[in-house]
Amino acid sequence: MNTVKNFFQKINPYQDDSVWLVRILYVDIYLSKFMKICRMAVIAYTLVMTTLQTFLFLQKFDGIYFIKYLALYAGSVVILVATFAVPYVYRSVAVVINCLDSWPVVYITNKMKKTIKVESFFVNGFVFLNTLLALFSASLYFVPVDGDDDIFFVFRLCEELFPRWKNLLSWFYRILFLPVAVLMPSVLYLTLYCMTRLRFQFYLLIHLLKVVNESDKEKVDKSVLLYGQQHQEEITRKLKFCIKRHNEIYEITYTASKKIDTFIFIFSIASAIFGTSIVVFYFSFQGSVEGIRYLGVAALVIVAVAMVVSIFLCGQSIENVSNELVEVLQQMDWNYWNRENKFLYLMFLSHAQQTLQIKFSNSVALNYELGVSIGKFIYSMLSVMSQIKDIDYGSYYKM
């Protein structure tokens, strides 16, 4: 019984943070002055170069010329969207974490504590390793190789417009790959961090529902439970607390989703264009590329795919734990509750039927269904591009 009483205690939201490593990498470090300076440098440089590239595209528009540099052009747009969105997404995550009072993990069963510990280990490990791989991919672009001018429009732009400053501007561009490797996925990792924290709080809510009738074990005569005022008041207190907690989780989740849905939508569209342009470039490019560039692109693809898959899995896990809560409610023994508690129970059960989803529109949510749809689209695109791969674009690349 002491466990249940202690369970109502609340703690500082960051005191018992199971996914502490993600918080350090993408919350604490982001707040540092160094990372803020890097962010402004990335935005300024990318914005200037993208504007110049847009102007030259319009001035000298050529279909094959456009396809040739579309991949990095779309990538620049993704970088701008991601870096602009980071502070807004961060504030939304901070609102969720600060408004949602945390419960101490120490007051749950060993089985659930182990579940949270294992999931936290995998989330922390995944983000850490994926960040290292992203930094490794970025570091590979420090090495100048033949053919960079055919991939990175910035290098050709510097040569045409700023020949005296070409080397300096090119090296500054290469150095920016490191902060970009951290800033670009920040939106997704912050979303992952927030959803993981929400899922763990859902676990704790489910645990409390399972022990609502814990005092039943202390009594044998069920009639005493039915007519015992103290017991019924304890049930009422627990149910009201669970209902309030459930409403808080839903309201905060939907509020946070609405605040960042525009950025996520734009980021998704830009990323889709970026991915499509990379595929088009891969199947149409006829030049030569050094092996180190293939290694860098391969690492980048692994990082991107892993991030997207992790977001879909985490979004689906929110739905799953929401449905699990409904199953726990349906299995509760309410036969020896009074009328008021039965009414609270039915009201709670009715409200919980609405599955919690991370939505970015009325019809789009982060789950398996969206992931499968995107996977089918990518497969179809690869199939189409593989059929036109034999087209000779070599003559068009002579500029």
TrEMBL record:
Membrane topology: Multi-pass membrane protein
Domain of life: Eukaryota
Primary localization class, coarse: membrane
Single Gene Ontology MF annotation: odorant binding
Compartment(s): Cell membrane
Alphabetical list of InterPro entries matching this protein: 7tm6_olfct_rcpt
GO biological process, one term: signal transduction
Pfam family, one: 7tm_6
TM spans (from-to): 40-58, 70-90, 121-143, 171-192, 263-285, 291-314
GO CC annotations, alphabetized: plasma membrane
Similarity field: Belongs to the insect chemoreceptor superfamily. Heteromeric odorant receptor channel (TC 1.A.69) family.
Listed name of the protein: Odorant receptor
